[in-house]
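Much of the work behind modern protein science is quiet bookkeeping, done one molecule at a time. The protein below has been through that process, and both of its lines are reproduced in full.
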Amino acid sequence: MKAFQNIDGFKLIMIFMALILLILLLNTPPVSNFVTAQNTAWLGERLMNEKYGECRGTGVLIKVKGDWKFTQYNLVIPIPNDIAQDVVKMIREATKNPK
């Protein structure tokens, strides 16, 4: 696969083992993309969280001394458009009156 051309065999095996473990732990297969360009990689994934339901993650990694390190990761809880205004209102109320 072109996306994994810059990763040595051992690291590639470790990435796939981590994905398999994630699948087993979450009991739902993630949809994941991992693209590399020299010393930078981007990922996008869909995850199922027991508490929050479907989540989406995006991240950027850089290769430092041969190892991939996260420089950024975002976890997002998708909100349907039909309820987005209500959710924004709830967030504003919660941040206006923090507990």
